[in-house]
Amino acid sequence: AQSVTQLDSQVPVFEEAPVELRCNYSSSVSVYLFWYVQYPNQGLQLLLKYLSGSTLVKGINGFEAEFNKSQTSFHLRKPSVHISDTAEYFCAVSDRGGSNYKLTFGKGTLLTVNP
Amino acid sequence: KAGVTQTPRYLIKTRGQQVTLSCSPISGHRSVSWYQQTPGQGLQFLFEYFSETQRNKGNFPGRFSGRQFSNSRSEMNVSTLELGDSALYLCASSQQGGGGGEQYFGPGTRLTVT
After folding, report:
1. Which residues of chain B make contact with A3, given a CB cutoff of 8 A?
2. Which tens digits make up the pLDDT trace of A68-98?
């Protein structure tokens, strides 16, 4: 079984400040890791994913995340946020192998960027 | 390329009724997954279809069912609706499915059960 814990349900920041959204996971098998963003009244959009290789992954809109296997973490960062980054962010995992074709999501972190 | 479309976008039903939601994947995508999103439980996997076959199923009662057609379009059916079924139902498509493939999400269908 897999689980994903997003350590902060809400993160308020000021515009142009850096932000880190934290994600830890638990799994008995190797996983792929994802970050999705959801704007109000919309579906989810993929920000970035870690499949293999470099543990630092760059995504869209200036976001990046670092995979830390020993700490089973995949924190999302952005050096300078904009008002338009206000949204809910979801960390997710899926199995590397087998036939388990599903994403397991965390509960989400609401990022609010204030002027 | 058109994105994932879901119809209807909003739906209001009464307890005990049944409902069918539709999802049209991105052209060329053969895998369709369904998720339920609620404030309390978050995003939960319902099931995934690939080439008209259900490959994986989440922990939902048998009232929740789905199917996929030869053109990859998928429908989800919920019978004997309960108040707790009120949620945003999201559909996602990908080319092959599988753990590392990117899933493209539709805007969702907001179901309200009264």
Report:
1. none
2. 999 999 999 999 999 999 999 999 998 876 6
- What are A's interface residues with B at a Cβ cutoff of 8 A? 31-32, 36, 41-46, 49, 51, 90, 92, 94-97, 99-108
Give dist(CA A19, CA A91) in Å, integer: 15
- The SS3 assignment for A16 reads coil
Beta-carbon separation of A102 and B45 below 8 A: yes
Report the sign of the C-alpha dihedral through residues A47, A60, A43, A9, in that order. Answer: positive
* Closest by Cα among A113, A59, A114 to A91: A59
User: pLDDT tens for residues B88-111?
Assistant: 999 999 887 666 678 899 999 999
